[in-house]
Design a protein that fits this description.
Helices cover 42% and strands 23% of the residues. The chain is built from five helices and six strands. A hairpin with a 4-residue loop joins strand 5 and strand 6. It is globular and about 50 Å long. The model has no long low-confidence stretch (mean pLDDT 82).
């Protein structure tokens, strides 16, 4: 009787098999590098997703602070640069703040932040499906020295060009992509 051939000598060790093994090993490494989930915060439920996280929150200062901190740290754990992570944290702050202004205090929100091959994706869902960001007011606010609001969307255009708004089961979703 002969012993079985070592894995590297098997006939089925095709490039596809090697690629699958490499991806599985990389996934194990990513899971071990995940930042710790935050301490319990009222109105916040965080769950890891592939290369990022999803946070279900009831708008509050503590929940926003925790989500911003996660947004500033989680993308770097998955290979994004600190500049991209900081930009993502700013986007989360701006979009969550806009949702509170549109929907009121304690609005339920869903925030998704994850790293793709070429970008960091930030999605914020809010229940106000009919209250849409108005791009036409951006130019006026950016040119005005006295405007008290409206500059955030202009910065959003600069930091995440091509952002869009789509319907979601919650209401609407604002999607932003930050190049890595």
């Amino acid at each position: 009787m002969t012993s079985p051939a070592p894995p590297s000598a098997r006939a089925d060790n095709s490039p596809d098999m090697d690629d699958m093994l490499r991806r599985a090993h990389m996934a194990d490494q990513r899971r071990s590098q995940r930042p710790a989930l935050p301490a319990r915060v009222a109105g916040l439920y965080v769950q890891y997703r592939d290369r990022g996280f999803v946070a279900h929150i009831t708008a509050s200062e503590a929940a926003f602070s925790t989500v911003r901190a996660l947004t500033a740290s989680v993308p770097t754990a998955y290979g994004a640069g600190q500049d991209s992570a900081d930009t993502a944290a700013w986007l989360v702050s701006e979009l969550c703040g806009n949702a509170v202004r549109a929907c009121g205090d304690h609005v339920p929100l869903v925030v998704e932040v994850y790293v793709t091959g070429r970008s960091v994706q930030v999605n914020v869902h809010d229940p106000a499906a009919t209250v849409l960001p108005c791009r036409s007011t951006v130019a006026a606010a950016m040119d005005s020295d006295t405007a008290e609001s409206g500059r955030g969307l202009g910065l959003l255009d600069v930091l995440a060009p091509g952002w869009d708004v789509v319907p979601s089961p919650v209401g609407k979703q604002i999607r932003c992509r930050i190049a890595r």
